[in-house]
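Bug report (template v2)

What were you trying to do?
Predict the complex of my protein with FE2/S2 (inorganic) cluster.

What happened?
Run completed; filing so the output is reviewed.

Input:
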Amino acid sequence: MTQEKKQAMADNFEPKITAFVCNWCTYAGADLAGTTRLKYAGNVRVIKLPCTGRIDFMFLVRAFEQGADGIMVSGCHPGDCHYNEGNYYARRRWRVFRDLLDFLGVEHDRVTFSWVSAAEGNKWAALVNEVTQKVRALGPFDNYKKMMRASKFGPQKTA
Ligand code: FES
């Protein structure tokens, strides 16, 4: 592939971003952004869960396997979790998960952890734009797919 063709592909690259959000705060904040007709990048696909405490970080690994270029995790602000402390568990898991990202060779900028309340539609829209820009600058996440294909854990080809 020529350098110009590669550059043209990079210029047209639209990242696929998967967002795991809690039902009570961030999902409502994203909904508010929609109902107030805020304009923001359309690169994010939202997966709603009851609470960030429910998010198994293997969900994130699976999202990368399925083709995500970037991931967002967002829930209620500390002290506001509908289930009292689910977001504290998520925050602790995130600290451990960052080490796993290093082990897997995933840039930290591909995963964004944040708090967005139900009243913060503007914050949600700004965050989506920021994450989209960040992931677009990193380019397609091909390394992970190549690594999975090469490993015994990747999809197995049948004869
Ligand atoms: Fe939102 Fe727990 S309910 S983080």
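What did the reviewer find?
The first helix runs from residue 3 to 11. The helical segments are 3-11, 26-35, 58-65, 86-104, 121-138, 142-150.
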